[in-house]
Structure formats: structure tokens, C-alpha cells
Amino acid sequence: MGSGHDGAAVAPLLTRRLAVPVAIFLSSRAVVLVAAHVARLIKAQPLTAVLSRWDGQHYLEIVRDGYPPTLPDGGAQSVHAFFPAFPLLVRAVVRATGLAPNTAGVVTTVTLATVAAAVIWLLARDVAGEEAATRAVLLFSFFPGSFVLGLIYSEGLFLALAAVCLLALHRRGWLVAGLAAAAAGATRPTGIVLAACCAWAAVDAIRRRRQWSALVAPALAPVGFLAWTAFLAAHTGDPTAWIRSQRRGWGQGFDFGAHTARSIGGFLADPLGDFNRAVGVVAIAVLVAGLVLLWRTRAPAVQWLYTAGIMVPALFSAVLTSTPRFVLSAFPLHVAAGRRLSGTAFAVVLALSATLLGLLAVVADTSLLFTP
């Protein structure tokens, strides 16, 4: 009788505890909302227009019209560079609620990002305890790059799926991990790294415990990415449509870090010459510090693999852009910082992050100085 009563109390207790990361993340959105209102006054635009800038316009085009069967000629930007899971989900929200697409996009992003914060808290709690988990979510929520979690961007969905996948792998929930990884693979190109995480965890489970059921995760993980690739090839008649769209419209490609090295050199020679470059280089410095903390906390190998899979493409890209978004997606760095920072050091880092969050949001919402 006693154990059954205790079991019945677990769900309400967990719900109360999850209210902490949820409240933290939503309070960080207040900073972003204030910044958006400032931007609205500066630009003399509706709030929804401010929140749907940049990639949001492309996602809204997919929500409204889907993917055209051909790529544009020349170097024009094309929606074929954007994976389908997020715009399809926004379209479903539009149909279910009757909301305008731009409103539905913001609501979807913020809701999913809130889920991500809660799951990251659970993962951090499993490895470091509740206090460190709360600090990790504070750092994640108020990280300057997190302003995109208030825009019509796919990061909210991707982070929720990635966090669920890593938590499920940690708890040996192989089916959940595989399904989350599959959905992430249809959300962002970096989602494919979760397939590698599932494979690593499965091999380890088989080697240590002969847990052959772990193979479910890596079997399911690549399905989303492969399905999207197959659809795009059939829809456009070009199996390289996504790659061509990335290269033509955004100049994306791999140069093994040459452009990143040039950007760092240019920043050192003229720190104030290019705001976009300065933000990218500072984000790299934050990444390096985070990797040091990740090493000192002896993070699990799967978290290292995930972080590397997020950051290597960003640093080896021929265009150093959106680096804060990639550091945001590499949330094991925030977990490591939450474990190692405390007291005055933590308070200073958090205050600086919150201030930069508001400033970066205003700059991105009102100018072309920074590409989010």
C-alpha cells in the first residue's frame, strides 16, 4: 500500500519541479518580448512582422505554399534549403487553431522551446542534481543566441527533439530516442548527428549489457533525414536539391575552417569593423570555454558526440554565420557550465548573458548588422 501511494505522488512532485525550468524559460522570453517591442517602435512595424524576419519569411512561405517543384535559376535563395518538420507543424497549428501563420509560428516555437528547457533540466538533473540543472536552464534560457527561440525558426522544435533523444538514451528508452532522432533529422540538417548518438549508445549498451533492443534507436534515427532527401529528389527531380539550394542561395559549403580562421584574424585586426563577424568570433570563444567545462565535468561520450556534431559543421563552414544559434543548440555546454559555475561567477555570467540577449535581439530585429 505504501509503495503504491508513493508512486502516485511522483507525477505531481515532478510536475511541481518542472515548473521551475518552465518559469525560467518564460521569464527569459519577457526579455525577448521587450526587445521586440523596442524593435517595433524603431522600425514602425507590427510586432508579428518583427518576429517573422530572416528565416521566418522562408518558413512562412513553406507553410502557405509548400515546396515548389523546381529550384530558382542563379543564386536566388530557395525554400528547398529548409527542412519540412517545423513548417508542417506550424501549418497543422494554423489549421487546428485558426491562428494567422506568423502568430502560429511564434507560438509553436516558444511552446516547443519551453518543452526543451524542461527536458534539458531533467537531463541535467540526472547527471548533476537539481541545483546544477536549474543553473544550466538559466544559462540556456538567457544565452544571447536564444532570442531565436522567440522567432519563427526551427530551433525550438529541434532542441525539444534533441533533448528528448539524449534524455531517452541516458535512460535507455531506445524507442523514444529513435523516434525523436528521426523527427529531428527532418527538422534540421544537424539532426543527423542524433543518429550517430543513437548508434554510439546502442553499441555501448550491447557491449556492456548485451541489450540488443538498443538497436531500435539507430534503426529509426536516420528515417526522417532519408525521407526528406527522398521526397526532395522526387519532388524536384534533383537528388542534390538541398545541397544546391544551400550553396546557391547562402554560399554554404565546407572549407575545413579556413573562413573561420580568416574571420578570427580579421576580428583581431579590427574588432569593430564587422559586427556580424565580432558576434561570431565571441561565440567561438564561448564555445571554447564551454568545451573546457564539458571536459572538466567528464560529460558522457554521447553528449560529446552530439556537441561535436553541432559545432564542427558550423566552424568548418565556408560562411561564419549564426554561430550563437549553434552554441545554443549545443546545450550540453550549458549543462557543463551549470555544473561548474556557482556563486558570484555564475551571477555575473547570467547577468551579462541576459543583457546581451536583449541587445542582440534588438540589433537583429532592426538592422542587417547581425544575421541570426
TL;DR?
The protein is mainly α. The chain has helices spanning 2-43, 47-51, 55-65, 85-97, 101-128, 130-141, 155-170, 174-185, 193-209, 216-220, 223-236, 241-250, 258-269, 275-296, 301-315, 323-329, 332-340, 343-366.
End-to-end distance = 55 Å
The geometry reads as: globular
Count of strand segments: 0
Number of domains: 1
Q: Mean of the pLDDT scores?
A: 90
Number of helices: 18
Percent strand: under 5%
Helical fraction equals over 70%
Comma- or semicolon-separated keywords:
372 residues, mainly alpha, 18 helices, disordered N terminus
Task: Tell me what the structure shows.
The protein is mainly alpha-helical. It has one domain. It is 74% helix and 0% strand. It contains 18 helices and no strands. Helix 3 packs across helix 4 and helix 15 runs antiparallel to helix 16. It is globular, with a radius of gyration of 21 Å. The N terminus is likely disordered.
Topology, please?
Blueprint: H1 2-43, H2 47-51, H3 55-65, H4 85-97, H5 101-128, H6 130-141, H7 155-170, H8 174-185, H9 193-209, H10 216-220, H11 223-236, H12 241-250, H13 258-269, H14 275-296, H15 301-315, H16 323-329, H17 332-340, H18 343-366
